[in-house]
Amino acid sequence: MKVDSTNWEILQCLQDNARLSNAEIGRMVGLSSPAVAERIKKMEDYGILEGYKAEVSYTKTGYQLKAVITLKAFMGRLKPFMIKVTEFREVLNCYRITGNENIIMEVVLRDQIHLQEFIDRLITYGEVKTHIILSNLIENNPIKDKNDLN
Q1: Facing residues of 57 across strands?
Q2: Which of 31, 58, 62, 129 is deepest in the core (most CB within 10 A)?
């Protein structure tokens, strides 16, 4: 499926606010509500639109720290870690990466004691580096039309 300029406009609307009605999106992009619904359905069917989610404030839900943690796995410990990490409730995102480290995770933690306990669970798998996030400069930036990038 080709993502044309109108589809990009619809995607931009949904990335800005996924709760917009088809009628509201239609007014913004110059289409009828049924035409918007049809385009959205096609983008869902093709996997361009992967889902919709609520954004939740980690600080207002009791977490004081957000951190990026990298792991350089010990020999033979990467595969066991990749299985175990799915059980860690603190992990928001986890990526297997290239470079000196094998894993990078974005985590939320209640406090410094929780951070220490979490690191203690990780160090059996490898060398850990922790970077506490002080503020967000860009977060959940919408994906843009590759043809509009300068």
Answers
A1: none
A2: 31
